[in-house]
């Protein structure tokens, strides 16, 4: 049975493409496989680190852009507040001027009525003087 077991084991090894003649060869074969795996893992780690560094650089760049836009936004808000204050001041001045214009218009109307009244009185006086 042992001979048969060894025979089948050897057949299985041959079918898998692994020819092992001694335990030392088996260890060396395994070391080669492990070295290949370690090399592959190192390459993957290197790629992952490069990707991580690239993402970090992109993140730094995006943060810089966000900070610049926030700075610009703050400046625009400041300018807008100043313009709002100026607009409010001009609106107040305009309202005051409109009020003054309205008062002047009322005064003009009053003065025109008074002038018409005095002209009528003058005309009446002139007419009476002419009659006398």
Architecture overview:
- The chain has 132 residues and is an all-alpha fold.
- The chain has one domain.
- It has 2 helices and no strands.
- The mean pLDDT is 91.
- Residues 38-114 form a coiled coil.
- InterPro entries: Dsh/Dvl-rel.
- One of its GO terms (cellular component) is cytosol.
Annotate the secondary structure layout.
Layout: H1 2-16, H2 23-131
Protein name: DIXC1 protein
Coiled coil: 38-114
Keywords: Coiled coil
Query: Low-confidence parts, pLDDT < 50 over ≥5 residues?
Result: none
Radius of gyration: 52 Å
The average pLDDT value, as a whole number, equals: 91
Distance N to C terminus: 169 Å
Which short descriptors sum up this protein?
132 residues, DIXC1 protein, Dsh/Dvl-rel, mainly alpha, rod-shaped, single chain, coiled coil
Task: Give a short overview.
InterPro entries: Dsh/Dvl-rel. With 132 residues, this protein is mainly α.
């Amino acid at each position: 049975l042992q001979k048969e077991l060894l025979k089948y084991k050897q057949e299985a090894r041959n079918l898998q493409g692994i020819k092992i003649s001694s335990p030392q060869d088996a260890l060396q074969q395994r070391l080669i496989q492990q070295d290949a795996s370690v090399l592959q893992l190192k390459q993957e780690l290197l790629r992952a680190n490069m990707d991580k560094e690239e993402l970090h650089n992109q993140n730094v760049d995006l943060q810089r852009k966000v900070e610049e836009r926030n700075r610009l936004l703050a400046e625009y808000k400041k300018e807008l507040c100043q313009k709002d204050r100026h607009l409010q001041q001009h609106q107040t001045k305009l309202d005051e001027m409109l009020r003054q214009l309205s008062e002047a218009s009322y005064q003009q109307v009053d003065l025109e009525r008074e002038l018409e009244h005095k002209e009528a009185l003058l005309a009446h006086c002139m007419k009476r003087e002419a009659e006398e």
